[in-house]
Specification:
Layout (H helix, E strand, L loop, with lengths): L7 H7 L13 E8 L2 E8 L6 E6 L13 H6 L2 E6 L13 H14 L5 E6 L3 H9 L5 E7 L5 H6 L11 H7 L1 H4 L7 E6 L7 H10 L6 E6 L11 H15 L1
Parallel strand pairs: 3-4, 3-5, 5-6, 6-7, 7-8
Antiparallel strand pairs: 1-2, 2-4
Helix pairs in contact: 3-4
């Protein structure tokens, strides 16, 4: 029987690709990663005083250009920003599926230049960060989850679909953050809007609790912020800056 995560009804309701293309701003360059017949786009921003590279897996409906204006804010924290686009988004080719998003995470992290590497997953991009937390590459120093999902059943119900009575072993191993997070050992920061009405902050608390073996784990609920404006709170940037300081010095 086909997994619900491989069905068109699920993936077509989950992804909202934007085929937007743009020229990189000054100080940035576009790189492309070839994975079989798929070409994935990553925009890398230079930062003169960078102590690390922060690889960001964006949220749904977003593309790399949405972060051009934020690159300077990351640079002030000592991070050179690299933003990877999902399949079918921006200048990446292919068809977006949750299985592909997760499967592309490690090859992207291995191909993006810079060390040490901090991986950040925002919202749907959290699926890539969950995978890399459980299976880190050699250069990785830490992981950040921003507004990320945790509960598989809730993820499916938000698509207007009914989850199965039980998930298979393959589904749990491939898709379930609750299966992956206990395996991670790297430092972890969980950032979530205290007023997020799309993904309940209790999912962030559950993710933080599940990562019990992490070398350093913190959770910050950003006051007065929801799902899509969480980075507008100063508490967000203070927490992220402190995390980078702890992880890379």
């Amino acid at each position: 029987m086909t997994s619900i995560f491989d069905r068109d009804a699920f993936n077509h309701s989950l992804f909202f690709p934007r085929p937007d293309a743009s020229e990189p701003p000054p100080g940035a360059e576009d790189r492309f990663i070839e994975l079989g017949d798929v070409r994935l786009h990553v925009r890398c921003h230079a930062a003169a005083s960078a102590r690390c590279t922060l690889l960001l897996f964006h949220g749904n409906g977003e593309v790399v250009a949405d972060y051009d204006g934020a690159a300077g804010r990351f640079a002030k924290l000592g991070a050179a920003l690299a933003v990877a686009e999902f399949r079918g988004y921006g200048m990446s080719s292919g068809e977006p599926t949750l299985r592909a998003l997760i499967g592309d995470a490690v090859p992207i992290a291995e191909a993006v230049p810079g060390a040490p590497l901090i991986v950040m997953g925002r919202s749907l991009g959290g699926a890539a960060a969950h995978e890399l937390f459980a299976r880190p590459t050699d250069r990785m120093a830490g992981v950040v989850l921003e507004s990320a999902f945790y509960d598989l059943g809730s993820l499916i119900r938000r698509r207007g679909l009914a989850p199965p009575a039980a998930f298979t072993a393959d589904e749990l191993a491939t898709f379930d953050p609750a299966t992956k997070l206990p395996r991670g050992r790297l430092p972890l920061l969980v950032l979530h809007g205290a007023r997020d009405t799309l993904i309940d902050p209790r999912e962030a608390a559950a993710a933080h609790a599940a990562a019990s073996a992490a070398a350093d784990r913190r959770i910050v609920l950003v006051p007065d912020r929801g799902h899509n404006d969480v980075s507008g709170g100063e508490a967000y940037w203070r927490a992220l800056g402190a995390f980078i300081d702890r992880v890379v010095g």
